[in-house]
Fold:
Amino acid sequence: MKPSAAERVASATGPEGFPRGGLPEIAILGRSNVGKSSLLNQLVARKRLAFASSKPGTTRLLHFYRVERASGALVLVDLPGYGFARVARSERAAWRALVEGYLNGRAPLRACLLLQDVRRELTDDETLLLPWLAERGIPAIAVLTKCDKLSANERRTRVGRLSAAFDLPRDRVIATSAESGLGIPALWKAIDAAAGDGER
Ligand code: GTP
Ligand code: MG
Structure:
């Protein structure tokens, strides 16, 4: 459902900075540069709420955005991207600690959007993340990004292939574009189903 308002409520470098309100949360996870911040902006119909950039690895904090829906508020969490080849090993360890520190035992977390560029193949990062989330009882929704870069035919082929690679039911794989808005209503439907009603 299209939200009526959105605002950033926190930016955190660790658990002490996570908001305490208890609103349902949906986390946005994916490789650096896959389009996490752009998707978030498109979801809330704001051009520059979340910081998007062509320079990979620019989001090093967890950003929490409160979004108002008719069915109640929820929080979208923009997680820092993984797999940025040029970062040092110590920085990768810091990423893990930060993101796992959030995903492990975060009570308000209702689902994780796992973003994947529709043009690229899955790597171990994605195929390992799904069982990791499942073990923790966190539902995953695969979101294919940048679908505007393909023709409708190419897109159908890639969506089929990636759904099989993710081994997720077809309604848990959503083809989107932050450029054209493709798939945003379908994604909101999936988010609403996962988050349930929020605070009114
Ligand atoms: P980090 O925060 O660095 O991990 O990146 P991110 O995943 O938040 O990616 P971001 O939204 O900053 O987008 C990265 C680049 O991809 C930017 O240049 C965006 O304009 C571009 N981009 C994102 N989504 C789309 C899309 O749907 N279509 C097209 N054509 N470009 C996109
Ligand atoms: Mg980002």
